[in-house]
Amino acid sequence: MNIKKIYLEEVDSTNCHAKEHLNIIDDRSVVYTYKQTAGRGRFDRKWKFTGEDNIYASFVLKPSKHILPCYSNLTQYLSVILTRLIEEYELTPKIKWPNDVLINGKKVAGILSESTVRGNELFGIVLGVGVNLNGGENVFEDIEKPATSIALESGKIVDKDEFLKKLYSKFFLYYDKFLDEGFPMIREEYLSKSSFLNKTIKVSGIGHVTEGQAIDVTNEGALVLRDSNEQIITLWIGDIL
To answer: Looking at the domain that runs over 200-240, which CATH code has it been given?
Structure first.
């Protein structure tokens, strides 16, 4: 497996670095650091730096010059890959739509995908991920939403380099198959690991909040709700509150 690894001793954001250098970074490269000072999440939220015992990485992907529907599901694919890896630490991770990974209801990993388009052509996708590996309880005390680390939940220190290698190896092992089949390839596993299915939830969108019972995820990765009036609502973007 020909994966190029680019280590940065310190960076504001691996995603920002990858996007800024996209023209010179090869397809299927992994940009990573243990010290990210200004990470970002979805909707431009700040990703708090939780110490150098954790992983901050971005996969640089250049699958084609055309934008295909399955590219929007790469974050969900990565969330499934992450759960498989975390299970090796004798834990039971869950996925909160669309791609947050939780352990015991607390966030352990966040994922952000950013595409660069030049003219009508896709120049590249930067798929960023931050995983709390070894952070202690004090690190998460001032984070707004409950967060945790693999070490806190398992009681064992995680080898950073080993974790990263397993992560990109598992990701690229099935990457080509995912590009061929799209979200349906992982849908059943994604649903089985969901933290939200069959629950009444609120989803924050752009300028509004939608409430209903989560009843399904479509073959395109969209969330399906049934509201109090028995109306079916399909959401393509948003965050579960």
So the answer is: 2.30.30.100
Per domain, the residue ranges of the chain are: 4-192, 200-240
Is-contact 144 47, C-beta < 8 A? no
Average pLDDT, integer, range 29-56: 72
What are the pLDDT digits (tens) for 145-171?
899 999 999 999 999 999 999 999 999
Whether 217 contacts 240, CB under 8 Å:
no
Is 200 within 8 Å of 225 (Cβ atoms)?
A: no
| Structure token pair of residue 106 | 């607390």
| Residue 210 identity | T
Contact 218, 236 (CB under 8 A): no
Total-model pTM: 0.93
Whether 39 shows a pLDDT value over 70: the answer reads no
**Beta-bridge partners for 109:** 101, 131
